[in-house]
Specification:
Elements (H helix, E strand, L loop, with lengths): L11 E4 L5 E3 L7 E6 L6 H12 L1 H6 L2 E7 L3 H11 L4 E4 L4 H6 L2 E6 L2 E6 L2 E5 L5 E5 L9 H6 L1
C-alpha cells in the first residue's frame, strides 16, 4: 500500500552512501525532497540528479533537504555522487524496504516483458515528516525536476 498525502514518512529512511543511518528525526524542522529513482548513472536518473544539484542552493533557501533513493549499493552511490558532484545524500535501499513502504517498488513492463523495478516518484515532506505532495512517475520531468518542486 503506497503512502499518500497526509501520511507520515517512515522514521528510519535508510542508510546513505557512507553507511550512516538517515532518520526522519534528524531532519526535523526541514522540508524534505525524498526522490526515488531507478539506477545510478543512467541517462534519466543522471538528468534528474543534476537538475536537483544545479538548483540545490535554491532548494536549500526554500527550506528543503534533498535525499535520493535507489536500490543501488553504497559504493555505486559514492561513484555517482563523485562523478556528478552531487551535494546531497543518496540512500542505498538495497533491501527495498523503504521503497516498498513508500509504494515505489513494484511490477513494471517494458517491451512486453514484466519485471520488478523502481517507480520514479518524488515525495515532498513538511517539517514534521508528513507527506504534503507526491510527484508521480508520469509527472516527473527529469530535466526540470528542481523547478517542478520549487513550482
Amino acid at each position: 500500500m503506497a503512502l499518500q498525502v497526509g501520511d507520515k514518512a517512515p522514521a528510519l529512511l535508510g542508510v546513505n552512501q557512507d553507511g550512516k543511518e538517515i532518520k526522519l528525526a534528524d531532519l526535523a524542522g526541514k522540508k524534505v525532497v525524498l526522490y526515488f529513482y531507478s539506477k545510478d548513472s543512467t541517462p534519466g536518473c543522471t538528468a534528474q540528479a543534476c537538475s536537483l544539484r544545479d538548483y540545490y542552493s535554491d532548494l536549500q533557501k526554500a527550506g528543503y533537504e534533498v535525499i535520493g533513493v535507489s536500490s543501488d549499493s553504497a559504493g555505486s552511490h559514492q561513484k555517482f555522487i563523485s562523478k556528478q558532484s552531487l551535494p546531497f545524500n543518496l540512500i542505498a535501499d538495497t533491501d527495498k524496504k523503504l521503497s516498498e513502504q513508500m509504494g515505489t517498488w513494484g511490477e513494471k513492463s517494458m517491451y512486453g516483458r514484466q519485471y520488478m523495478g523502481m517507480f520514479r516518484t518524488t515525495f515532498i515532506l513538511d517539517e514534521t515528516g508528513t507527506i504534503t505532495r507526491i510527484i508521480l512517475p508520469k509527472e516527473v520531468n527529469t530535466k526540470t525536476h528542481a523547478e517542478q518542486i520549487l513550482g
